[in-house]
């Protein structure tokens, strides 16, 4: 009889208390874990991070995401700038990326349609493509319901272009061309006799200097933004008119996934700004996110991506902002003092962070 007392089913009266105790042990961690997740959820999300002090854009995105909408819905609040190309025309480059699905929609050199981010989202939602360009991108956006055709030039951009023309179209993005100090028409300098290498090098140095002027603190219109919504999902977007007085047809890093911005839901996101023609050769935002995936903190990941570019192009101007899944963020820059904007729970308004080179 003593042996039978050790057999569990020999005492049916103990089965219910034992079951209740086991259920309590299993349910307790679940409840505690749920409470912990709620605490982190409330403290860190939602979150909006943007390059530069584009305060109104950050506030607009915050109002949307704080109301419970998705990160993708919030990103479409990013607006365009107003930089003219060599012909005085304003065109749009834009990108949106969903960090959950890794879907991307983008438009480049788009004419006649103002809402670049909304057009990019239509590409993502209603096509199997990633990037549409030029007038065909405009036609697609209009056919899908966006307003247009619209003249994208403003009085400010027109005045800016007129002053540039009066200054003999200087500075510009031409190099190794003749005549070097005029509004063209241009020809390759190797077709002109008596043009020695010294002149060519001088033109190249002038080009580097003029690039710095156009991507400086007060001469850019690119906004890149990352949003984490209440569910912890990440989306990113970029909108720009590109470099001032760019050669018509030029596409910068704005609509290029991995360059101007990038997002992976389980890792984090990155936003970039600066000399897109150089930065797009390195895909700095892809580099940042992948570095964070391997365990780097946002600050180190951002600094590493910028350093990779600076080693090859020590005169470039640029910056990145890194944002991990925890909501931790940091920036890095080269050649200028960079600022980025953040809004998160507990903040009364947007906070601007300054990053020194």
UniProtKB/TrEMBL annotation:
Gene3D superfamilies tied to this protein: (Glycosyl)asparaginase (3.60.20.30)
Keywords: Autocatalytic cleavage, Hydrolase, Protease, Signal
Catalysed reactions, semicolon-separated: Cleavage of a beta-linked Asp residue from the N-terminus of a polypeptide
Residue sites binding substrate per the record: 250-253, 273-276
Primary enzyme class: hydrolase
EC number(s) stated in the UniProt entry for this protein: 3.4.19.5
Signal peptide stretch: 1-33
Matching InterPro entries: Ntn_hydrolases_N, Peptidase_T2
Cellular component, GO annotation: cytoplasm
Site location (Cleavage): 221-222
Pfam families the record matches: Asparaginase_2 (PF01112)
Active site: 222 (nucleophile)
One term of GO molecular function: beta-aspartyl-peptidase activity
Gene Ontology terms describing biological process: proteolysis
Family named by the database record: Belongs to the Ntn-hydrolase family.
Assembly notes: Heterotetramer of two alpha and two beta chains arranged as a dimer of alpha/beta heterodimers.
Protein name, UniProt field: beta-aspartyl-peptidase
Organism, as annotated: Lupinus angustifolius (Narrow-leaved blue lupine)
């Amino acid at each position: 009889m003593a042996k039978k007392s050790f057999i569990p089913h020999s005492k049916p009266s103990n089965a219910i208390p034992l079951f209740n105790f086991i259920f309590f042990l299993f349910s307790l961690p679940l409840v505690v874990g749920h409470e912990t997740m709620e605490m982190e959820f409330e403290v860190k999300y939602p979150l909006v991070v943007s390059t530069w002090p584009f305060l109104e854009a950050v506030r607009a995105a915050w109002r949307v995401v704080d109301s419970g909408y998705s990160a993708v819905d919030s990103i479409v609040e990013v607006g365009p700038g107003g930089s003219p190309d060599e012909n005085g025309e304003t065109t749009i480059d834009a990108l949106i990326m969903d960090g959950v699905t890794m879907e991307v929609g983008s438009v480049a050199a788009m004419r006649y349609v103002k809402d670049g981010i909304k057009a990019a989202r239509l590409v993502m939602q209603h096509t199997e493509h990633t990037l549409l360009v030029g007038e065909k991108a405009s036609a697609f956006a209009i056919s899908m319901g966006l307003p247009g055709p619209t003249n994208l030039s403003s009085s400010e951009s027109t005045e800016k272009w007129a002053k540039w023309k009066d200054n003999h179209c200087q500075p510009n993005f031409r190099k190794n061309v003749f005549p070097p100090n005029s509004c063209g028409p241009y020809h390759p300098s190797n077709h002109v006799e008596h043009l020695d290498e010294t002149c060519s090098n001088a033109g190249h140095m002038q080009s580097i200097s003029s690039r710095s002027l156009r991507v400086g603190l007060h001469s850019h219109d690119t906004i890149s933004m990352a949003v984490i919504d209440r569910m912890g999902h990440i989306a990113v977007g970029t909108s720009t008119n590109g470099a001032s007085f760019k050669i018509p047809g030029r596409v910068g890093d704005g609509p290029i996934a991995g360059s101007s911005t990038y997002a992976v839901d389980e890792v984090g996101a990155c936003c970039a700004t600066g000399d897109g023609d150089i930065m797009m050769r390195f895909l700095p935002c892809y580099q940042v996110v992948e570095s964070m995936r391997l365990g780097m903190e946002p600050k180190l990941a951002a600094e590493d991506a910028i350093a990779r570019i600076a080693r090859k192009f020590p005169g470039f101007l640029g910056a990145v902002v890194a944002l991990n899944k925890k909501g931790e963020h940091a920036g890095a820059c080269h050649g200028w003092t960079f600022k980025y904007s953040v809004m998160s729970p507990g903040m009364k308004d947007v906070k601007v962070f300054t990053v020194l080179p």
